[in-house]
Amino acid sequence: MRRALTAYRVMAWVVGVWLIVLVFVAMPLKYLADSPTMVEIVGPVHGFLYMAYLAVTLILAYRARWSPVRTILVMLAGTVPFMSFVAERRVTRWLEPLAARS
Fold first, then answer.
1. Would the CA dihedral through 62, 87, 81, 8 be positive or negative?
2. Among the listed residues 71, 72, 52, 73, the one whose alpha carbon sits nearest the alpha carbon of residue 7
3. Nearest to 46 by CA among 91, 80, 87
4. What span, in angstroms and rounded, lies between the C-alpha atoms of 38 and 18?
5. How far is 50 from 10, CA to CA, in rounded Å?
6. 24, 65, 64, 19: which is closest to 42 by C-alpha?
7. Which residues touch 29 (CB under 8 Å, ≥6 apart)?
8. pLDDT score of 13
9. pLDDT at site 96
10. CA-CA distance, 93 to 88, in Å (whole number)?
11. What is the pLDDT of residue 53?
């Protein structure tokens, strides 16, 4: 469980940072400065990373025996800016005691 939790934590931060760059840098450049280049780069990278985040979250959810609702809520955290950081802290708080035992 320790490896799954570590992988989840890393992916939550990576996806969160890329989403913030996409929403607060690339999108304003596209619509306010008529410069779509950054969205064309950052958007697909975030999409790929989000798919990896989903896979890592599913693995962690399976090992931690989460309910489907909790799993989906944690997965959706990667779609709202800053929410993946909040979810990562909560998931770590939930699972640290379990990971320490295994």
1. negative
2. 52
3. 80
4. 12
5. 12
6. 19
7. 35, 36, 37, 38, 39
8. 97
9. 83
10. 9
11. 97
Look at residue 98 in the predicted model and tell me its pLDDT: 75
- The letter for the amino acid at 7 is A
pLDDT along the chain (102 residues), means of 10: 92 96 96 94 96 97 95 94 94 84 66
3, two tokens: 């490896």
* Residue 70 confidence (pLDDT): 95
Q: Do residues 11 and 53 make contact, with C-beta atoms less than 8 angstroms apart?
A: yes
C-alpha 62/C-alpha 66 separation (Å) is 7
Q: Which amino acid does the sequence have at 92? A: T
Report how far residue 53's alpha carbon sits from residue 45's, in angstroms, rounded to the nearest whole number.
12
Number of Cβ atoms within 10 Å of the Cβ of 96: 12
CB atoms within 10 A of CB 2: 13
Query: What pTM did the predictor assign?
Result: 0.90
